[in-house]
Amino acid sequence: MLLKGVFLVETREKVVKPGIGEKTKRWFRGFGKQWQLQTMILPGVIFMIIFNFIPIYGLSLAFKQYSVTDTIGGAQWIGLDNFKAIMADKYFWESVWNTVGISAIKLTVEFFLPIILAVMIYEIPWAPFKKIVQTFTYLPHFLSWIILGGMLINWLSTNGLINEVLKFIGINAHGNYLLDAGKYWNIAAWSDVWKEAGWGTILYLATMAGIDPTYYEAAEMDGASKIRQIWSITIPEITNIIALNLILSVSGLFNSNLDQTLVLMNSQNQPKAEVINSYVYRVGLTQGDFSYATAVGLGVSIISVILLIITNTATKKLNDNQSVL
Amino acid sequence: MFLMKLNWHKKLAGLGVVALAAVALTACGGGSSNSSSSKGSSNMPKAPYKVPTASTPAWKKDTRKNQKLTWYVNADWWNKSFGKDMVTKQIKKDLNVDIKFVTGDDTKLNTYFASGSMPDLITIFDPNSKVARTANQWAYSLQDLSKAYDPAFMKYAAKDTLNWYKLSDGKTYGYPSYSNTAADYKSGDIAPRDAFVIRKDVLAAIGDQDFTTPEGFVKGMQAIKEKFPKLIPFGFNDFSGANSSLENVVQDMLGVPITKAGKFYDRDLDPDYLKWLEAFREVHADGNISDDSFTDDSNAFNEKINAGKYATMMLGSDVNHGTNLQTWMSKDKNKAYEAIEGISSTEGRERTLSQAGISGFTITYVSNKTKNPSKATQVLEYLLSDRGQMLTNYGIKGETYTQDANGEVKWTAKAAKVQSEDASAWQNQYRIGEFFLMSHDKWKALNKDSYVQAVWQMQKWGQKYLTPQFDIENIAPDPGTQESRAYSAIQTNWSTTMVSLIRAKDKAEFDSVLNKYKQFQKDNNIDQINKTRNEKIKENQKKLGEN
Known about the structure:
- The complex is a heterodimer.
- By secondary structure, chain A is mainly α.
- Chain A folds into two domains: 2-62, no CATH class; 83-318, Orthogonal Bundle (MetI-like fold), CATH 1.10.3720.
- Chain A is 69% helix and 1% strand.
- In chain B, helix 5 (142-149) packs across helix 15 (373-384), helix 12 (271-285) crosses helix 20 and helix 20 (482-503) runs antiparallel to helix 21 (507-523).
- In chain B, 41% of the residues are buried.
- Chains A and B meet through helix 1, helix 8, helix 16 and helix 17 of A and helix 1, helix 3 and helix 20 of B.
């Protein structure tokens, strides 16, 4: 994308509806002038072709009956059989429902919380304290789910941290929370919020740092309260980033957290804990049913692209017909 | 950012072209190599030495120096070094061979098949996979290899194991490690691994309790709770990836049959077994099973063994928890866990404890693309021979072990010291017991110290109950089929059901959960799955000569 962007900056001014030949010539001239810059992105482009585009070929597996001894090209075509089987698979639908359920909680909480948190951090007047708060909220992000999951299992167990605290303040303990399937969605969503909310503030804080302080001075002189200032200056200034995050979160509705699920899932909460990713992992890798797993993955990707386009259109409407992507 | 919007569709088209070109390239690559696969075993190269009779191993006659082989192991954790430790240094010296190990997962294995260039030796783990079932297309048969290069191989290979891995053409292509035959089961050289264990001090304190009947079991646990309120009365293995020790292991304790009239028997729904699940439910309802046992991972379970938290355990695979049992035992001998008679059939059936079956653990093949099948065969023969087994299990005589006239093996003082004090030196400098691609369990019996002291009594307790279950090995439907998906759905449902049965509040809930599972089986085509299982059982019986 950068490729186009860079020399468009230079050529844009002179454009007066040129013919196609003229346009191509200019393209090459522009390219020649900046070839050093252009080669810099070459490794990135090659990386993308090798790891993002060539593997697209593997999607043909979704329509084939494939096993380890076959080549991708050599496997037998079976049309839409895999997709038909998916439609009839109870566990697939269960995993879709759980993915959407958990994502929906995450979307509402994990979308708003970083904004609120970012504003709060931004408003902290004393710099050292600001740094401490930031460090503490970022910290869980850097721990892997394997470690964090182990901690959670411990905390949520019969004699774990949470029950001990409840006991201490005189509330009847609950038992092992992870065995209670009905609580799983919330456990998954809120533990993820705890892990990622701090990290999610970074983009907002970076944008807020660029807000002209004179706006606030002027607002103060006009007698605007703190809340008023946040509402009328801070928030409008970060709308673009909010919109961007919204698009990314909504299109990620079907993305689920494999690491988290594999650590926290057990036989009792499985009906509520199995998400699309863990389902694909189980079917594809554990059971060696590659074609079927590919078909599931392809279906989910298509839905995600549709979601992406819908939200992009919606935010464009909210954003003076301009896409933030 | 908005600048990029201009002409985006053109750019997308360009990328599309690139992607298409890439597709075409890879497609060509795959196609061309595929056609060159499958080479008959008739055109095997001639042995570059005079092939000896079965009484002399061929490596003694082969004078070639500096031979090289590539050995692929389908597991990322396999230690790839060769010739640096005592065991592999000796192999290198005896056979004049340098082995380059390559490791990977199924994707890497697939790349080998797709590219057509294969390593000399290939080790896989799943005898039910398509790779194993189509071995005649990409590997040399052991019969042909042995005849052409090293007749001694057949002397060391177990006949039952060879029969077990025979493909439809009557030849065997791969040889497993840790394959136990029916004769091995009878010999007493293989130790059982499961037992109902109790802490000695607990047993002494609770008076006369009968853990062999469901009613006695429930009462016994109550008695433990009274005397030892801080302990968890009843524990069992963790559930990570499997159904703990509450499924197969309990069924083996009760001697639930594996087949009935030669047909598949659903052991999970055996009335005797269900009676015991109901007993476990009562124990749980009394608060004598901790809910945490259902969420603990193997580390958490081992920590609890380490600290003696469980008063009793249905312990599966005691050897795997040996170090933890030993740690606990070393704290106070009088509190150590010991096996007692518990959890027995209500129908008077004898226990049928199981062990690793005839399928074994790894399976190793000689690829038919190898340029040096003679050396590859020698390597397998050497490792499988008595000399190779002693070397990989015990190291070098005089240096790491001594053997008396009865054949009993003892570690030398130096080796014993390294084993107990420096685990990493034991692994990396000696590599004893680690180079196991052709190792078999019965050799371990030569040395009492093969297993930690804490499990000796448990192993002795179960010895007389060992019974093979070869008939039902690898009988799951083939992966990738609709049946296999239904089967896995049923398995998943059963895992949930089993724990729900134990956690059920009362008998009524227990029954309703069980009925739901039975209905689920029916809805997921269990009859068809059982038909497949029956066919596979029949095949197995044929291979075992039972039919």
